[in-house]
């Protein structure tokens, strides 16, 4: 058999550094060796080392601070989406402290898009909620939620700073939740996301469009969730032996997703 082709040197460096990060040799927030130090260690040029570090940065394992150096990223929090849970409901069970900053909670006329999702008429009153979710006191997501006024009236006086909307709907409003349809894509942070999540403008953001239905299949809660790309993951197990529906490019409600520039990734009510 022919001899195996050796991996490029930058790949070898990347793999070695990744292993040292994952096994705790370089713990979160630890400063990585400089490019010149790594060059001496691996007998590589700074260009080769820089290429390896660049790949690790794309993977989210390290980050750079201008004028200070390269540091190990903290592990990203994650939420499994195999069951329908609110953010606090899922994350508190994993030991995280969850707090919410309420940016607004009010009744507004439903836009055509929101009305379509909730099966209302355009202009019908809906409760609009904007919240920044904090994970261990650090902002991790911005949530935009719309609920029909008939259901959401109780939300106007509920403790939205510490409670999940799902639990309020179930426990306070008597709504039995059924299922949710999700659509996931990535956008770049605009001014609002930059301020809310304390990230740089243009930073990657994970956008989740979610339409939640009650047990009878009626849409009850429509929302956009914007997660920091460097701080959070959604995880899902895929079973090869279960039949899945065909892939679709439609929105959760089955309507064509509105195509908007990344800087305008948040629809109005």
TrEMBL record:
Record InterPro entries: Bact_HTH_transcr_reg (IPR050679), Chorismate_lyase_/UTRA_dom_sf (IPR028978), Tscrpt_reg_HTH_GntR (IPR000524), UTRA (IPR011663), WH-like_DNA-bd_sf (IPR036388), WH_DNA-bd_sf (IPR036390)
Domain of life where this protein originates: Bacteria
Transcription recorded as keyword: yes
Keyword ATP-binding: no
Protein name: GntR family transcriptional regulator
Span list, region Disordered: 243-269
Entry's Gene Ontology molecular function annotations: DNA binding; DNA-binding transcription factor activity
Residue intervals of the HTH gntR-type domain: 7-75
PROSITE patterns for the chain: HTH_GNTR
